[in-house]
Amino acid sequence: MKYINTKTLFFTASLLLGVIAVNAQQSPKVFGKTISEAAINSETGTIRCVTTEYEEYLKEKFPQRATNKEFENWIAQKILSNKTKSNASAQNTTQVITIPVVVHVIHNGDFIGNNENIADEQVESQITVLNQDYRRMLGTPGYNTNDVGADVEIEFCLAQTDPDGLPTNGIDRVDLGQASWGESDIENTLKPSTIWDPAQYFNIWVCNFGSDLSGVLGYAQFPSASSLDGLNNNEGSADTDGVIIGYEYFGSINIYPQGNYSYPYDEGRTTTHEIGHALGLLHIWGNSYNNNSCSYSDYCDDTPASNGPNSSCSSHYSCTSYDMIENYMDYTNDACMNIFTQDQKERILAVMENSPRRASLKTSTVCQVTAGREDFELLNGINLYPNPAQEVLNIATTNNELPDSYIIYNSLGQTMAATKVNTAANLSINISAYSSGIYFVSIEKGSESKVLKFIKK
Ligand SMILES: [Zn+2]
Predict the structure, then answer these.
(1) Which of 53, 124, 274, 346 is flagged as catalytic?
(2) pLDDT of residue 5
(3) So what CATH class is 373-456?
(4) Strand locations in 179-266, DSSP E?
């Protein structure tokens, strides 16, 4: 327990009275590690993050994974070398890094927008929050006026090209036929069966947590140290790399109020926090809440020493000053978070420069449109009117661009017309001679095509 406050007293009293029987069963274990009481929100019963526990599990599974000490030695050298480089170049202009993202929405057959099969707009609202937070964007909840507050100069984009080179909106909906997900199913099935090349895409999974992950908001895979300095680079954990978030904690109610959210974690900061871990950040108390100690560090001098997680938005004096409860790497409510610090930024940039499956994202081109993308967009916006039609059928495009050609065939597959489109006039088709029934129009542009149906009255 971190400290005695009224909430803790309430929690303890409730236990004694047996009021919250579920919590009274106590000491939940995640990834084989006991979750400390300090990490459980006593009001909601939720566990904000299990990245520390997950990292311990990965170290057991992959003994070659760098120890905490090895990783800290490695990153300290990288930070130092980055600083030397930027001093030498005598300029402060860093290039903004854009991280290409795929969001796998793992569902169970629900309609889009229902329950765990969250709407595109909810996914997009999360990307917006990430950009506001990592860019400390003026006029957004991600802005702060703290002297040590950093514009991390990292942005996120939804991928536009999938691993097969085909167009995508960066949202990968997968029906895995399972209502909720515990740690074993996630690690052995969900992630490995859906992951996109983690060297080119930053993978984010959104699902309904259940079983041993009930009440958990999310977790991340910590970056590996590169092999360049003789450390192993742990490629063995490549097929689980990324962050996974409970669907009701993904996206922002401020941006897309119609989405599915759970207060007080409804403004997208769970993902900001977890990506912070994936890019090398520790909790502000140094991931050691079991010890209720000030002697652990997050290796960032500009975040005051803290002895454990804070929940809600109340201030707390931990060690030598008040905790930075507004830091994204605390456990506070979404609404009171707004800062990454300069030292946290340096850790992130060192990871982006040097870590496997992080450095390669900088040169990934998957946020650029594929060659066929414009053709795909054009065909996507095409419609027929009127439908049903009697005399003239029109092919409508969303802009003035023309398709290459079209073929009309009847329900028996017989070709009625094959027309190369030279002018817009070619898009008005006289069908007065056709007999009544169902017809199809196959419209082509580049290597793409689209088939639409119409009825002749
Ligand atoms: Zn965390």
Answers:
(1) 274
(2) 39
(3) mainly beta
(4) 202-207, 218-220, 243-246
